[in-house]
């Protein structure tokens, strides 16, 4: 079995009785991120694309802005009860190392930031302000992106328990898809991919997420210079406020041929389906 999934015994109860069988679950393990040997943070994630995850996280926190800012990323020694490397500690060496931040990160629920303070903090920290009119996307093309994202979720098919994030070109071409038990980690993974591919600032890309659009996901997109974020579910009020004030296009309830546009409608080209004559 891949390390992203694990098997556990379960008892399935139904109207016809009970059945004992193994079930496939998404793996959740801690990843400690270190800068120059000093602990920066620990995130719970699904193993896989850890290098992308760390690069994306460091972009989101304004610690790096280009792939050359990272000299090396290596797993530190750490073993389980059977002596195997757990690959749960990544140490990052930066080209221009500075003090390791000690504040709580915006991506944590206990950051203590709210309302106008949070909006001002993110807007002033981003290295990549959004261009006003970088591209437009046909709404029928945007509507097809969640289905493409879903088709690429191989681990979700096995477990039913992972979020996904995908980066798309404006014509609907999917460029990168990552899965994780945490929606913020899935976004960090695709942002890290973009950075390592020299596509940050991502002024020509669309970010699609499988769940809701929270404030932290909008701020991650903003920190990477992504002008458009589409979510299958609802946004939060603060997510809408940040998108509106930063000039981002934010679309929620992106399902089938319907969607709610909460900010930045100018980047969408709507082509309603022609109704047959009565």
Can you put this structure into words, describing what you see?
The chain has helices spanning 50-60, 115-125, 139-151, 154-159, 183-196, 215-223, 237-246; strands spanning 5-14, 17-26, 29-35, 38-45, 70-75, 89-94, 137-138, 163-168, 174-180, 206-209, 228-231, 249-255, 258-263, 268-269. Mean pLDDT is 86; it is low at 106-115. With 278 residues, the protein is of the alpha/beta class.
Strand line-up across the major sheet: 9-8-10-11-12-13
The CATH class assignment of the domain at 137-269 is: Alpha Beta
Give me the number of helical elements: 7
Roughly how much helix do the residues carry, as a percent range? 25-40%
Shape: flat
Oligomer: single chain
Global structural class:
alpha/beta
**Largest sheet descriptor:** 6 strands, mixed
Strand content: 25-35%
CATH superfamily of the domain at 137-269: Cytidine Deaminase, domain 2
- CATH architecture field of the domain at 137-269: 3-Layer(aba) Sandwich
Low-pLDDT stretches are: 106-115
Counting DSSP E segments of at least 2 residues, the number of strands comes to: 14
- Give me the strand/helix succession: EEEEHEEHEHHEEHEHEHEEE
Report the mean per-residue pLDDT as an integer: 86
């Amino acid at each position: 079995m891949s390390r992203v999934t694990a098997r556990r015994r379960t008892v399935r109860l139904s109207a016809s009785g009970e059945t004992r069988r193994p079930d496939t679950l998404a793996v959740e393990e801690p990843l400690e991120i270190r800068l120059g040997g000093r602990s920066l943070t620990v995130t719970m994630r699904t193993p896989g694309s850890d290098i992308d995850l760390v690069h994306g996280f460091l972009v989101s926190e304004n610690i790096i802005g280009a792939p050359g800012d990272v000299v090396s990323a290596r797993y530190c020694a750490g073993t389980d009860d059977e002596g195997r490397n757990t690959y749960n500690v990544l140490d990052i060496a930066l080209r221009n190392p500075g003090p390791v931040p000690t504040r709580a990160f915006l991506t944590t629920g206990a950051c203590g930031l709210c309302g106008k303070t949070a909006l001002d903090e993110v807007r002033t920290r981003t290295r990549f302000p959004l261009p006003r009119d970088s591209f437009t996307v046909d709404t029928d093309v945007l509507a097809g992106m969640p289905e493409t994202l879903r088709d690429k979720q191989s681990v979700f098919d096995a477990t039913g328990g992972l979020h996904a994030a995908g980066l798309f070109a404006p014509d609907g071409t999917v460029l990168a898809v990552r899965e994780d038990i945490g929606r913020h980690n899935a976004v960090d993974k695709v942002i890290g991919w973009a950075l390592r591919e020299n596509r940050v600032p991502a002024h020509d890309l669309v970010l699609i997420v499988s769940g809701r659009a929270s404030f932290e996901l909008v701020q991650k997109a903003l920190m990477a210079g992504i002008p458009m974020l589409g979510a299958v579910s609802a946004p939060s009020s603060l997510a809408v406020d940040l998108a509106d004030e930063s000039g981002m296009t934010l679309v929620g309830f992106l399902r089938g041929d319907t969607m709610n546009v909460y900010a930045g409608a100018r980047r969408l080209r709507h082509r309603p389906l022609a109704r047959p004559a009565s």
